[in-house]
Every structure is written in C-alpha cells, then in structure tokens.
Amino acid sequence: MEIVREVDALKARRATWPGPVGLVPTMGYLHEGHVELVRRARAENATVVVSIFVNPTQFGPSEDYGRYPRAFERDCAMLEAAGTDAVFSPAPAAMYPETFSSWVVVEGVTSRLEGASRPGHFRGVATVCNKLFNIVNPTRAYFGQKDAQQVAVIQRMVRDLNMNLDIVVVPTVREADGLAMSSRNSYLSAEHRAAAPVLYRALTVARAMRREGRDANAIRLKMAEVVRAEPLAVLDYVSIVNPSTFEETESLNGPSLAVLAVRFGATRLIDNMRLDE
Amino acid sequence: MEIVREVDALKARRATWPGPVGLVPTMGYLHEGHVELVRRARAENATVVVSIFVNPTQFGPSEDYGRYPRAFERDCAMLEAAGTDAVFSPAPAAMYPETFSSWVVVEGVTSRLEGASRPGHFRGVATVCNKLFNIVNPTRAYFGQKDAQQVAVIQRMVRDLNMNLDIVVVPTVREADGLAMSSRNSYLSAEHRAAAPVLYRALTVARAMRREGRDANAIRLKMAEVVRAEPLAVLDYVSIVNPSTFEETESLNGPSLAVLAVRFGATRLIDNMRLDE
Predict the structure, then answer these.
(1) What is the mean pLDDT of residues A44-72?
(2) How far is B40 from chain A (nearest CA, A)?
(3) pLDDT band for position A72 (cuts 50, 70, 90)
(4) Cα(A275)–Cα(A277) distance, rounded to whole angstroms?
(5) Do residues A53 and A8 both lie within one domain?
(6) Same domain for A214 and A258?
(7) Is the pTM of this model over 0.95?
(8) What pLDDT was estimated at residue A277?
C-alpha cells in the first residue's frame, strides 16, 4: 500500500493504475463503517484509493476541527488489511493554498437540517469532494448512507456539474445495539454511549409505524417522543424527507427517509432510515 | 465536422476521439477572434471541439440573453473551414434541467469591475465552463485575452478545483482601427462603431505612458480623459490591475493590465492591454 501526500504526485500515480478505480473519501479515525466502504470498493475495482483528509472547510468556527480525532498509523494498518492500494493524505495547505477562493455551492438540498444546523458545512463538503474527484479521477466513489444529506448533496453536484464518476451508497454499519458507526462516537462518555442507541430506536419505531400505515406527522411526533424519553438526549431535529431533495414530505407513498440529529452533551449524532424499504 | 446536441452523446463520442483534445468554448455568432482560437487549437491538438452555447446563467435579468445574436449555420460553416472536428451545441434545458442547483463560485478575482458591474455573471461563467470541461474532458481549453477577467476567473477555478486541463490564452484580435473583435460589436450603430476605437486609443496611450515611466494614477486619469473626449462614449470603469488577482495595482514594476469598460448607447464594450510587455 502506497501513501501519497502531494496532489501532483497522486495525479502522476493515477495515470499508472489499472482501472476501474474506486475512491473512498474519509476524514480518518476509521471504523467498521469505513472498512465496509473499502470492502465494497475492493470488490468492484482494480485499484482502491482511500483519502484521509480532515477537511477544515466543512467545520464551522465553533465546531471540532482542531480536536477531531486522528489516528493515521492505525488507519493505515486497517486500510492495508482491507486491501487498499493507495492512501492519499494531503496537508491542508496542499488542498487550500493561501490564494484558494473557489467553492462549489449546492442549493436546495442543503437548505435544511444539517445545512441549517451547520452553515457552510456542505459548501466545504462539496468543494473538497469536487477537488478529490478531480485529483483521483475515480470510476466510482463510495459514501455511507449514514450521512444521507451529504450523499444527496454529492449526487446533486455530480449530476449538475456533469462529473465523470458513479456515486455508490453503502448501507450504514451499526454496533450490536443499533448505534450507527461514527468517528464522533469516540467523544461519548460511558453514560452518553449507553443512551445513544435512542436514535436507532426512534428510527425503528418510525419504520414500524410506516408499515402500519401511520402518517408522516404521527411518525415525527412519535420519534420526538422516543428521543425525549431519554434523559441524556437533546433532540436537535427530526424530519421525514424526500431522500433526493431533502424537502419535508407529507406523502409516504414515494421514497421517504426518516432523519434525526440528537445531542449528548457536546456531541451531536445523526442517523437515518428509509421508511419505504 | 459532426454536430452533437446531447451531453451523453458528447461523452460517448469523446471516448472515441484521438487526443490531445482542444476545446474552444463560445456563445456563437463567431468572428475572427473565435477563428483565431480555433486555429490555435487546431495547431496544438489531434481533435478540436467548439462549443456553441448562449449560457443563460451568465446574463443578468436586465441583460441581453434573449436578443444575444445567433447565427448557427454561419458559425458552423466558419468552424468547418477552420478545421473543427466537432461542434457541441446543447439546448439550455440539457445543460440546466429544472432540478439544477449547483454552482461554482470564485471569490476575490470576481469582486471588482465586470464582477461588480454584472452581479452573478462570473458565477454563470465559472459554472458553465466547469460543466463543459467535465463533459468534453479537454486536454486544453482556449480563451481570448479580450475577456481578461474571465480568463483570470477560469484559471483560478481550474487551479483551486484541481481540474485536469490547461488553459491557453490567445491574444486579442482587432479590427484595422484597433477595435477588439466582439459579438456585441454587431449592436453598434454606424456612429457608435466609428467612436468605438476610443477603447484601443486609451489603452495604447496607457502603454506609452507606462514606457515613459509614468505612475498608475496618472495613467488612469489620462485613460479616462481620452474616453471622455469622445462625445458618444460613456465611461463605465478604467482600472490598472494585477492580471491574476484583478486587484487594483499602484506598482507598475510587476505584471499590470490596463482594463476599461465603455458604453455606447445600450452597448457596453470592454478591452484591456498588458502594460509590462
């Protein structure tokens, strides 16, 4: 497994790799969810590239960029074991030199929920993914369903800007108690960790209600009730959306996705589940 | 010469063309300036693609999108004579379907002059060029020096987003009296056409003053004086800028570009000249 630090070096190496090429973009501090993305990429491509880059432009000024967990050596060992061919891990100044001033802005799908809670977040996500796609030129890029709104933003960008790759969405990997894998789970105290499966419980209740034919409003109210019954949880939002547009949906006949964000102390977790599957 | 209307068809054809591929993006109603771009592309590439697309997103609501001149048959005849291999001319709805909501925004270099006079203009230019670069995947794209700020915006975007092509800038082609070739020259009345070379006169005076060692402020004042001496001309702006950043420059020791915009009735013309060459 080779480790590449410079943009030009990655482009030069790319020209020598057999295709198709699968890219797994990550911010490092990898867990089983990331490994699942790599496994899927490994099964579908001749070359697998994983990027490890804690992207400063997707963190708000009051967010956790500085303290975002990092474990590069451990990450590389996990990636090598999972069959990764190359790790691209540039320095922030290589991705954002001082003169940097171009942004990819996706409107509409970014206006609510994570976009509203985290101003500028999706501008940073879209911009860094656009750059990574141009640098690596992958046949496919792999994203986890856990960050469902991010997936919708990236798919919108790729379609709108006619980018030449396929976006592959991989199901969320969960702990035994249902908690979705996330690098931010490492922030949780033991008490908060024990309370955190409330997100999954609220989602499974939502799906059961959908199957019983209950309407969107009843489901939203019940999800909020489930979260509020957990004393350590503070509900940020609960919503049932069209998974492509992230507009609130009242009809449950078409594609519908239940999403929620919950705080445990300073740690904010998100999760989602399709209701129509 | 083949004519391609659909995005997917262009991508499919692209896969069959020998490289390197040169792209000349245009809005049609071609003149000798465009033909010069095609000649340069022809000399440097195995395949030459010209796009003809009057891009609605770079026109302001009060601008001339609807009445922008169009002459597709004549354009194709000129392009075939100049050795073009393929023309890409998509419908507006093919480039901007109803769900379209992603934009490339270049800050800094767009804040003054054309960017200030035409809000949203460079967002539209950057976005459509980003799309065309992804669709055509050219080795090189050719732009005229006449639209100097546009060139700076595109170069900034390509660098910031790590796009995989070279931007080639081709010197401005002028009429015998110095007027820079522009599709908008066709709007000029006979009287305005006779007055229009005042832009070139102001620029040549600026260059002569630079060679005499005069300072930037004296040159700006003199350029404005030259334009105001023409009764049919209304000065929009005159500026001496760093050609990469488009910030006003006081020092004439480094790269410097004199730029101006002048109105003749409803028609607005721009031109520029390097002072340090």
Answers:
(1) 96
(2) 26
(3) very high
(4) 6
(5) yes
(6) yes
(7) yes
(8) 85
